[in-house]
Write a structure and sequence with these properties.
Length: 154
């Protein structure tokens, strides 16, 4: 991902998330590349259709933000993209990968659980929502037991 991608990334972010990141959030991650942040896009031929914002520090990887353009959801692209994210974590020699997801985002929760993430915590009233606040489910995946091939096949 580059600054030039941000118009398309922000359009997807606003379409895919109830409480979207701001442009500053993406720029801050891009600026932090030297500190272990990785910002990747997904292309369908020449069209940007998704992205992931990741970080790695010590022996942990964090999935900060991920989305596939809603026009392309339901085609298995999110699962394939998530496999890439997990493989990236294994390549970083991370022992675990962590993320937070809205408690009401049942599609995302199901996807994460289907590839091996477990619910390990709850952050009460973490996200703003239309009805006030919504809890975040904290999820973790043990990467230590995966090799590159296994990560790609989850």
């Amino acid at each position: 991902m580059s600054v030039a991608d941000l118009v398309e990334v922000l359009a997807i972010e606003n379409a895919a998330h109830l409480n979207p990141w701001t442009e500053k959030g993406f720029v801050d991650c891009l600026d932090a590349a030297a500190k272990g942040y990785v910002c990747q896009v997904v292309l369908n031929e020449t069209q940007l259709i998704g992205y992931a914002m990741l970080s790695a520090a010590a022996d942990e990887a964090h999935l900060l933000n991920i989305a596939i353009d809603p026009q392309f959801q339901g085609l298995g692209l999110g699962r394939r993209w998530l496999h890439w994210v997990i493989t990236w974590g294994v390549r970083q020699n991370a022992q675990g990968m962590f993320l937070e997801v809205r408690s009401g985002n049942l599609v995302a929760l199901s996807l994460y659980e289907s590839v091996g993430f477990s619910r390990i915590g709850l952050r009460r009233d973490y996200y703003p929502s239309l009805l006030g606040r919504e809890d975040a489910v904290v999820m973790g995946l043990d990467l230590a037991k995966l090799d590159i091939q296994e990560a790609a096949e989850i």
